[in-house]
């Protein structure tokens, strides 16, 4: 039996390389083999940190007798859903015709043409209550294939036809942006779903839903006190709960109980990147306790026990939580190359026994004696884009150059290894090589936004130039079509089989590809003044606008984007001198010394004050004069003609690229910000 998974890019596939199952990787060859043998196809989809995927692998795929049975009657394909999200989405949609309980491992049986005719999730080795054993499922599928082939083919054609008939999201020519009242009403719907006893939204299982938290924080930054209070309560209770690892930092994927207890212990890159941004912004919006940073929060758990399996009655403040998340990203998920792996597993070996969550129940001293759960070192372009954006923004806002440097390191790896010489973007790589999986719209959008945030944090033009090229490759400037599409199109196997789905605007734990690309396009508009990027963002958000207002928790990024588009566009740019003369340095030192004699919140440098400015529609950048010139020369209109007046750091406060007179003092900037806020309030 040929071992086809031993050299796979995906660690998840490599973990199955020693199975007695004759696995094939995703590709046309597996389906061609099924045609040759005239047998059905088992498509088994999972990911490396999926607990029940591990369980089914141990119970069923490692069983030589079951594997022989499977090999004789099926062609078996193993798919990493993170490497091939289009494949996962297509078969999830097909599986919904057979089971309401969707999840992973996803077990789908298809014809040699790739059309699903039966599906489920985890199947045990022995029957349990109303769940058949996996061997029973294989036998039933074999019987149907050999004895009732006509019914099987009819079912497969029916499911394929139903999926093909689903309308693509409508292309929107223009969008009527919601008024402030509609946004407030939508935020009230979020509040109505709050678990007032334990925090968070809904019952069990309970997810952090970081995009919704970011949307609430955005409204809060614009003056919606109720939205800010709701986000603050949720984030602070999460920080005090078993969902967070108090030893190493970082949040687990979700909790199985309403009180945040019994989490599923995988720590995902996307969750922690988005939550880093959330806690970083909360620290700016509620700064009073960001240094002392402790809150007392009752979570109904034993506060004396250590480890993440227990709750903590003392909640760290938001800046401390943000720092712990960044520490987890840099210490655990960062690969030797400098990019970020996709997740850390939930399982590890404790005292010779493989257990889920056991490592996270240990205190710091005990952990040092045990090997940590493994990290999936698969570098995903989109998820790395989220981490780059989070580290760049949080690092710039909180004066953490090490976070910004980590963002630069990851961006440089992706630009060197995930962008081909002809500008084509790749989706995934690992220590084993580069994947053949096509880059999706989420890869382009998330990476582009990360690069733009990195330029705003560093002033380096190359990142913004690369982001613009990525977005230009996705832009579809044709009437009647959606404004963005992945340049390579959908997965080629799905496309050839007619089972590829249209881009889905719905969201989950992280932004959809459509929403992520629209966010980056809006940022690019604010840097360039090119109106086509704003128009594209508006057209992209239009089809999901009503759904986002009705269900903002499920469409957090789209909801946030609606608020951004509806708000006045404000750019705050600080240009610092590239070379500080001794005279200017002495004057600045005198000013800072004088400010230090009477400490006050405004006693910071002009760039630092600007970086602490948050609000819907607000873009903040701090660059030196050389960077401003280079960015202007590269076509980023915001920086054109912006200088450090008389060698001093100079702030430019602009509304739709029309700027007030430049100022060089913090008090002057505060005055201008207040005046502009009053003016905008009168206009609403």
Describe the sheet with the most strands.
5 strands, mixed
Strand order within the widest beta sheet: 1-3-2-4-5
> What structural category arises from helix and sheet content?
alpha+beta
Mean pLDDT: 91
Number of distinct helices: 26
Rg (C-alpha, Å): 26 Å
Taken from the alpha-carbon principal axes, the silhouette is globular
Report on the architecture of this protein.
The protein is an alpha+beta fold. The chain contains 26 helices and 21 strands. The strands form 7 sheets. It has a 5-stranded mixed beta sheet with strand order 1-3-2-4-5, with helices on both faces. Strand 4 (106-110) and strand 5 (116-120) form a beta hairpin. Helix 16 runs antiparallel to helix 17 and helix 16 runs parallel beside helix 19. The longest helix has 18 residues, at 441-458. It is globular, with a radius of gyration of 26 Å. The chain starts with 10 loop residues before the first helix and ends with a helix. The model is unreliable at 290-294, 296-306 and 595-603 (pLDDT under 50).
Which keywords apply here?
684 residues; alpha+beta; four-stranded mixed sheet; 26 helices
Task: Describe how the helices and strands are arranged.
Layout: H1 11-15, E1 23-25, H2 28-37, E2 41-46, H3 51-61, H4 64-73, E3 75-80, H5 85-95, E4 106-110, E5 116-120, H6 134-147, H7 149-165, H8 180-192, H9 210-221, H10 225-239, E6 254-255, E7 263-264, E8 267-268, H11 269-285, E9 294-296, E10 314-316, H12 318-333, E11 343-344, E12 347-350, E13 353-356, H13 364-367, E14 375-376, E15 379-380, H14 381-397, H15 401-417, E16 428-430, E17 433-434, H16 441-458, H17 461-474, H18 492-497, H19 513-528, H20 531-541, H21 545-550, H22 556-566, E18 570-576, H23 582-597, H24 606-611, E19 618-624, H25 625-633, E20 650-655, E21 658-659, H26 666-683
Parallel strand pairs: 1-3, 2-3, 18-19
Antiparallel strand pairs: 2-4, 4-5, 6-7, 8-11, 9-10, 11-14, 12-13, 15-16, 16-17, 18-20, 20-21
